[in-house]
Amino acid sequence: MDVVGHLYILMNQYADVILPVPLDGYFTYAVPQEAQGRVATGIRVIVPFGRSKNYVGVIARLHDDKPQGYEVKPISVVIDTLPILLTGQLDFWQWISSYYMSPIGEVYKAALPAGLKAEEGYKPRTETFIRLTANYQNEPTLHAALNMLARAAKQRDAFIAYLSLSHWDSIEGNVCREPVVEITREELMNASESTLPTINQLVKRGMLETYEVEVGRLNQGGTPHPEHIKPLSHAQQDAYNQILLSFMKKQVTLLHGVTSSGKTEIYIHLIQRELDQHRQVLFLMPEIALTVQMMQRLQRVFGNRLGIYHSKYSDAERVEIWQKQLSQNPYDVILGARSSVFLPFQRLGLVIVDEEHETSYKQQDPMPRYHARSAAIMLGAKTLLGTATPSMESYFNSQTGKYGYVSLTERYQGIQLPEIQVVDTRDLQRRKMMRGPFSPVLLSSVRQALERGEQVILFQNRRGWAPMIECKQCGWVPRCQHCDVSLTLHRNMNQLSCHYCGFTYQVPTECPACGGKDLQGRGYGTEKIEDQIRDIFPEARVARMDLDTTRTRNAYERLITDFSAGRTNLLIGTQMISKGLDFDKVSVVGILDADRMLNQPDFRAFEHAFMMMAQVSGRAGRKGRQGLVILQTKNPELPVIQQVVRNDFEQFSRELLEERQLFHYPPYYRLIYVYLKHSKDDVVNTAGIELGSRLRQWFGDRVLGPDKPAVARVKTLSIRKLVIKLENGIDMPRVRQYLLLAQQQMLQDKRYGSLQIYYDVDPL
User: Long-range CB contacts (< 8 A, 24+ apart) of 145-151?
Assistant: First the structure.
């Protein structure tokens, strides 16, 4: 792609600038005469905003149309010599802003690394190098220096070490033979076993001097001898060929392949094909945890042609990746989480969205609430959606001809799908045969697997020790002061935590309502599961993977590497462990509480539950023997449970789509959630009723609500929600126009001065 915009000079030039503020539209500034030859669309500038603030903005448009009605302020500073955005990126930002009804300033904040948005800018990483000063760069002065150091043995040793390392000791006549090798201060200290004060003394004497060199934070090493790409099996080759044929007709293709069918090998062949044709590839994954294993696999094949981009990398590293993508030598393959869609690509040919069904692709807070799968399709490259459990939207699009469809039903090397045993925990509890959350058959299966030297995964989609604590005497339950939720007990940290606002509280020693001392946890989180498993299987090497144990990039890598290497053999986790991780020795998977997933107050509950159970089941028996899944539920008769057991996605999707069509839900209808927030509950309630009335004037009975959401107060703000159901084919630009008009009318009312109104388009 060519760089955005063309440099040009006008007598009176104005720039429409995107600012990182939650306001709609661009802001116009005058381009000073001295800057007119140096500005272009996509260049960053510092501009004044309001009475005293300055922001780093991005020029979206240059023109000569002077705004009327106010004094136009000039641009203060032009930061860049070249644009930081490539052709099409501003259009992509504008699409996200329009489609997801988010101010473009919020898109700007989400798209750029913080180092590119700050006034002080990004500070490159530097390293201190050392060299001879100009006065000591010939033979006589070098001998003089050595004589001066005769009584300073440590300094003399360090000086001689420098001369040797840098080749200044290779004298030909009166001067050193070139080239001189550049030496870092750290290298000199290590080679001469010198301390920093010793080196500083040589600098103080004027014999050596230090200088800073910019060095990248990115790993440039790669794999010195990349692996050859493995040949595809017959089934994989057939799927690969079908994908290429599909891409000849369709921009988007869905690859529906069962777990462990070898989709990754197909991806690798497709990537290599793009690289052979000098095109770039974006490989999206829903969870940072997944990038660890995939990074290792792709690096073995593509070496330093691969770049990694996600939020666990430092901001400085993300800035350097952004700059590298703008350079003459960009990464050919980017592996990353959802924010990778914003990176600049000069010749993007293919986007792979692995585990396309995952809800993690949808940004929730803050704005823009975009879906990376939908956004990736708008990048303009061929897009492959891969999964064992397609989302209803993608599956529907593939069955109605909007997307191509390729099926891969055979597991790699003929490995059998796992046997799934359903355990009726209601009956076992009635007979007092459950040991906490564990059924006898689960404990027996875990014990046998560990004795055989195999590995076990236990899945519980709830972190913490217990979802709540309760006074056994009066039933009091502690709740968050800022949110309408009970507090989760984290016993390892000895605190109660709100999983909505993050506020923490001390665990009470007695009930404030009745003075009772018997406060007990109700339910089971991963922390409690881990504690009980350690008691039952003291010989097991247990690890836990949830949000509490994976707050850093290194934590993800350590947990996955240890489990892959067998240093741990029993992994307990939340939905993180259900997403495409590949472990050779896992023979038993336990789904401890299927009912919690099925009983969510959400029309997507069964869809998400089926996907999660099918995906986590697929972790069992991936190599060698057939795996075993123990699925614990109080409702074994539910059709969805039996469909998981049979891996019957076709029947599951057919019944679910019939239900969705009957009740006007996606993929037959589009949804927009309209949220209202205010510090006073009566104000937000009145505002919700009034906004609902306004919207019904245009949309009629397509508008439902307002209602209180399941959590009706978060961070001290009361919430109301309106649901708008729109049939496919409706004029969406007109819909957005009406919504924004209604919002403007509401906010003009003084009663609603501090009212917040925002939208969630295509919610999950």
Answer: 145/207, 148/205
Q: What angle do CA 409, 597, 472 make, to 5 degrees?
A: 155
Give helix 196-204 / helix 185-192 axis angle, nearest 10°.
110
pTM of this prediction?
0.83
What φ, ψ does residue 314 adopt, rounded to 5°? -65, 155
Q: How many beta carbons lie within 10 A of that of residue 63, not counting itself?
A: 12
> 47: which residues sit within 8 A by CB, 6+ positions away?
17, 19, 27, 29, 54, 55, 57, 73, 75, 76
Local structure of 264: helix, strand or coil: helix
Write down the pLDDT at residue 460: 92
Helix axes 89-99, 732-747, angle to 10 degrees: 70
**How distant, in Å, are the alpha carbons of 2, 22, 37, 61, 578 from that of 90?**
13, 17, 21, 10, 36
- Plot region of 436 (φ>0 → left; ψ -120 to 50 → alpha; else → beta): left
Q: What is the mean pLDDT of each run of 10 residues along the chain (764 residues)?
A: 46 90 93 91 94 93 91 93 94 96 96 84 72 85 87 91 76 48 85 90 92 63 65 95 98 93 94 97 85 83 90 83 94 94 97 95 93 97 96 97 95 80 95 94 96 94 89 92 91 86 90 90 91 95 88 77 90 80 86 91 92 87 79 95 94 96 96 96 96 96 94 94 95 94 93 93 94
Residue type at 604 in one-letter notation = R
Instruction: Say how far apart CA 464 and CA 485 lie, in whole Å.
Output: 15
Are the CB atoms for 362 and 371 separated by under 8 Å?
yes
What pLDDT was estimated at residue 592? Answer: 95
Q: How many CA atoms lie within 13 A of 451 on its CB side?
A: 6
The residue type at 124? P
pLDDT score for 619: 80
CA distance to 681, 687, 713, 747, per residue, from 708 (Å): 10, 13, 9, 21
Quick one: which of 70, 54, 71, 74 has its CA closest to 14?
A: 74
In angstroms, what CA-CA distances link 603 with 488, 664, 710? 25, 11, 13
DSSP string of 532-566, one letter each residue: HHHHH-TTS-EEEESTTT-SSHHHHHHHHHHHHTT
Query: Measuring CA to CA, which residue among 236, 503, 281 is closest to residue 381?
Result: 281
Closest to 599 (Cα-Cα) out of 651, 634, 557, 564: 634
Q: What are phi and psi of 720, to 5 degrees?
A: -130, 155
Place of tokens 């644009």: 83
* Residues 594, 596: Cα–Cα separation, whole Å: 6
Q: Per DSSP, which regions of 634-702 are E strands?
A: 669-678
Cα–Cα distance list, 676 to 96, 500, 510, 686, 691 (Å): 21, 17, 37, 10, 9
Quote the tokens at residue 199: 């080196």
Query: Look-up: residue for tokens 């406060």?
Result: 519
Distance CA 37, CA 271 (A): 41
Tokens representing 599? Answer: 């009983």
Rg, Å, the chain Cα set = 31
Q: Which helix (H) or strand (E) holds 653?
A: helix 649-662
Q: Residue 8 class from Cβ within 10 Å (0-12 exposed, 13-18 middle, 19+ buried)?
A: exposed
